[in-house]
Amino acid sequence: MSNGNIPMKQIDEVTWEIPTSFKKGMRVPARLIVTPALKKGIDSGVIDQITNVATLPGIQKYAIALPDAHRGYGFPIGGVAAMDMEEGVISPGGVGFDINCGVRMLTTTLEEKDVKPKIKELVDKLFNRVPAGVGVKLKHDQYLANISRSEFDNVLEEGAQWCLEKGYIAEGAIV
């Protein structure tokens, strides 16, 4: 897709901003985090979806499309949005409900003042515990489930409920 007809302001080397004037109802700007080469190939569906996300009630600061962004169901895969607790919405399309691609939504009682002093430690722990990248091996055996093919089929059919019954997730983890 040619992005020539979409008003984008370059913020830095890899950040491009679409202003709220682009689409009626946008509450915040939309941002694409992509190299110039990736920007040239962005699907028009991603632009449409991320600017739609920018119209959601309670959205904070920006609707963001990461470098891997591609068309999803209403919310682009690789899209990021933070919502206000009181005014915001929960968007199932933003958590990969269709193919359950490993994205999770969570709530916490922590506030920014609680997390900010420990942000580096938190990021380091997440980086060390969450597998990332093609072919990456888990570093921690506690995340590996040694299951048979039939048990795997049960996981596919029952999802999180199977994990709960087998003790892989905590009570209350399923919303």
Describe the protein's architecture and organization.
The chain is an alpha+beta fold. The chain has 2 domains: 107 residues, no CATH class; 47 residues, no CATH class. The chain is 26% helix and 18% strand. It contains 6 helices and 5 strands; from the N terminus they run E-E-E-H-H-E-E-H-H-H-H. A 5-stranded mixed β-sheet has the order 1-2-3-4-5, with helices on one face. Strand 1 and strand 2 form a beta hairpin. It starts with 8 loop residues before the first strand and ends in a 10-residue tail after the last helix.
Describe, in short, the structure shown:
The protein is α+β, with helices and mostly antiparallel strands and 175 residues long. It has helices at residues 36-40, 44-53, 112-115, 119-129, 149-158, 160-165, and strands at residues 9-12, 15-18, 30-33, 59-70, 77-83.
